[in-house]
Amino acid sequence: MSFKEKLLFYFLVLVFLGSVVSWGLFYYYSKTKPVAAYGGQYIEGIVGQPRNINPLLAETNQTDADISGLVYSSLFKYDGQGKLVPDLAEGYDLSSDHTTYTVRLQKNAAWQDNQPVTANDVVFTINLLSDPAYKSPLRSNWQGITTTKVDDHTLQFKITTPYAAFLNNLTFSILPKHLWDSVTSDSFSLNPLNLEPIGSGPYKFDSLQKDNSGNILAYTLDANPAYFGGRPNIAKITFNFYTDENSALTDLNSKKIMGISVLSSQNVANIKNQKSVTVYKYNIPRYYAVFFNQTKSLPLADDNVRLALDYATDRQGIVNQVLNGDGQPAYSPFLPGMLGYSTDIGARTFNLEKANQILDSSGWARGKDGFRAKNGTALVINLVTTDWDQLSQTADILKNQWEKVGAKVNVSTYTISDIQQNYIRPREYDALLFGQVVGADPDPYSFWHSDNKKDPGLNLSLYGDSTSDTLIENGRTEVDQKKRAEDYIQFQQALEKEVPAVFLYSPEYVYPTSTNLHGLDAQTLISPEDRFWNVDQWYIATKRIWK
Predict the structure, then answer these.
(1) What does the pLDDT look like over 8-67, one tens digit per residue?
(2) Can you give 440-468 as a three-state secondary structure string?
(3) Boundaries of every domain in the chain
């Protein structure tokens, strides 16, 4: 063959081979599909610092709660619809009088040091969280409940009267008795296991990195091969910690991290790689409010001042400015869709004229500087909140709104750990702008009953009297849903009259992650950490299998 003929021949051979390969690839991809495979690392940014990755202490620090939920398991958990589903529990039975719950445990559950999980661990954990010496914020939910071990994998919970939301109490995570049994209450929060935990969850502790000042920069978890639900798909999960949201967003944009635990609505537009990031928006039963401590502020002890501030608050304006409309105004601790929610409760229309009239008629006179005083007491409100952008911006807007009716507002922002330790726990604030996650059941006991006025209780307004306490208690024990709703409506009417807080808004939970992360399946989160409810099913790596 001539050179040209040889060239043509080889060209045709190459075309033929290319066609065969192309046909083979086409056939392979048409007859197979991608599925999750083991491998990969997910890196998420969190604004905050871990302190106690311990389910009995994590309630007051969202960073701790996020990590704790991956390391530990609970009897029950919430799925992506906000519904209660078994976790360590295999199932349960309820007595005909609604006072005895018999819970059966998974028989293949093990701790990450290969010891079996048994009913002894559950009883031990409940004894700890019920003991006031351990200062668990979960303690209030376990008064008057008797827990009995039936056998190694069966427990009975006995309550004196029916409690409609009892199963929601069983979402606390379990500690391993063999590791914590010798730890005293004095050293409980100082134990090394609080940062290097051993649980029974889908992920286990691997390593942490600190800077020269002792701040934790990164925290890595490995997939737990012995997890009773099966080894998770993603090999490692690493959390990087930031002092502010903008720093986390910068790293998301530069692809140093693959997600941010929560992003303010305003920052969604600042995600540069819109095509490589999926922004999930979840419903969540939480609200933000300004909680008034009437024991620390003479002006706020005046009913008329609190009422005027309620009228002077433009909630929809805050939702539009702070949340870009991704949320709804809140007027009580009961949100739309909850049992006991009513549009007739607390919905005071924004009305500056009425707010001024209330203050004028109650003797709070304006001075030459435009601010009010009464009997030598200046109408000064010291408002504290966290340095989280969303809340600091909200505080600045409130300052502007309330000063229009003559209240002098001083805003101070602090880190979340500083707020928790130095303000919330000792109740050292006049007014606190903060959020509360209501939970799956609307039971307001933890947040509004008199028993929870002091730390570790969560009654941030120190609110409560015999009337409101009775309504809360009745709502807890009433099995009839209609009657429960009536009790809660009456409770909200009492709350509306007293104005112990100005409820502001309920935002959507915004969770941006890389498009390389798959398997997320949620619409409603009860708590932010519930975004991980099916984390063992998430995946980054893939493989192809025949259809």
Answers:
(1) 777 777 887 888 777 777 766 777 778 899 999 999 999 999 999 999 999 878 999 999
(2) CCCCCHHHHCHHHCCCCCCCCCCCCCHHH
(3) 73-190, 194-283+508-546, 286-507
Confidence of residue 382 (pLDDT cuts 50, 70, 90): very high
pLDDT at residue 16, as a whole number: 78
CATH of range 73-190; options 3.30.2130.10, 3.90.76.10, 1.10.287.110, 3.40.640.10? 3.90.76.10
CATH class of segment(s) 286-507: alpha beta
Number of Cβ atoms within 10 Å of the Cβ of 298: 15
Identify the residue with better confidence: 264 or 92.
92
Going by C-alpha positions, the residue among 251, 272, 233, 222 that lies closest to residue 518 is: 233
468 contact partners, CB below 8 Å, separation of at least 6: 448, 449, 491, 494, 495
CB of 195 within 8 A of CB of 54?
no
Determine the 3-state secondary structure of 541 from DSSP.
coil
Q: Is-contact 488 475, C-beta < 8 A?
A: yes
What tens digit of pLDDT does each residue of 195-207 get? 999 999 999 999 9
Tokens of 439: 């939970």
Helix, coil or strand: residue 196: coil
pTM tops 0.70, yes or no: yes
Does domain 194-283+508-546 fall under CATH 3.40.190.10? My reply is yes
- Strands 41-47 and 259-260, sheet pairing: parallel
Rounded to the nearest integer, the mean pLDDT of the chain is 93
